[in-house]
Amino acid sequence: MFDRYEAGERAVLVHINFTQEGEWEDLSECEMLVSSAGVEVMQVVTGSRQSPHPKYYVGEGKAQEIADAVHRTASDVVIFNHALSPAQERNLEMLCQCRVIDRTGLILDIFAQRARTHEGKLQVELAQLRHLSTRLVRGWTHLERQKGGIGLRGPGETQLETDRRLLRERIKAILRRLDKVAKQREQGRRARNRAEIPTLSLVGYTNAGKSTLFNRITEAGVYAADQLFATLDPTLRKIELDEIGPAILADTVGFIRHLPHDLVAAFKATLQETQEADILLHVVDASDDRFRENIEAVNDVLVEIEANEVPTLLVMNKIDSLDHQQPRIERDEEGVPKAVYVSAMAGDGIDLLFDALSERLAKQMVQYDLKIPPQHQGRIRSTFFEMNSIKTEEYDPEGNLLITVRMQQADWSRLEKREQAVLSDFIVT
């Protein structure tokens, strides 16, 4: 599409510590990201600044230091642990004479390597194209204007304009296909809602052990590895919970600090499993010194995808790596389970996790006896029937429908809102 330096396998890593942000601890995470991408770090260049430089992001002296490191180590690519503007990328590439990738580009590259399903590949391509659309440069000087023959002479369009048009058309085509995928997922969710099957969604920081826990619970054999973003494509499996019955468990992509907005937008269909869940299992690597910061980073992404209102159960994983930690359930002031300490790898505490889930879901279920007069019976009964929530029903001598319903508290609240609180008038106390 346009001329850029080819990225390679040897890299110079750049991390700048901004005094007002205090992101120094992200350097080790960036090194893990680079390792996950299959790139060898030849040298790490660090520095401190008050704010980014508009031309090179770093100062001119530091930029020259990076260029010297590239030539000295014969590196193929410079990777910044920060988000660069298109102009900064181009300026650095001209100075270093090699490909320059920022944090967003690095994460996109890892996602492109991990995508396995058709949907996952489409989502990654969409995110890459959106990122690329801001970085088109005039690299086709031999095609300044496309000229036609006789009768078609005129300015035509530049190759840059052609590239932009082709990008827009491809993005539109991908969005149409992803829209079909979203509709298919919505149909599956509606079917589960009608069958009154609760959905549990695993969320958490990348490499927290979500897929290992998923495999331990479901024996699904999902790919799990000690690397960032090992899971990209969502997987759903049915599990059985005591006193609740069947439930759907969804394994989702891991989150990270400053998750690129293009990725959040592209993975909207996948992340909807998280929005629509009855309970989020927030898996935390309890052995990580920064686990509290990781929890905050995940909560920030949940706010961004509008899933922060979903009830959450913390799963403190990898307790086998800690001293004096035993599997246990931690409860809040009302005695409701709020955290479970487990080891997905060793299988410790999984039975306690099932107990906590059954207890939380049971508390979210409501059961009401209703007495519905004839003029309201048709619509309301059909709604309950679609949700498969009717336990018993009969009619009294006056023609009133006596019905017992059981459903999720969230579903009842939505119904009350839709029926404008009429339902509460029919409850038999």
Automatic annotation (TrEMBL):
PROSITE patterns linked to this entry: G_HFLX
Cofactors that this protein relies on: Mg(2+)
Keyword Chaperone: no
GO molecular function: GTP binding; GTPase activity; guanosine tetraphosphate binding; metal ion binding; ribosome binding
Highest taxon of source: Bacteria
Binding residue positions for Mg(2+): 211, 231
Residue numbers binding GTP: 204-211, 229-233, 251-254, 317-320
Subunit structure and binding partners: Monomer. Associates with the 50S ribosomal subunit.
Protein name: GTPase HflX
Gene this protein is translated from: hflX
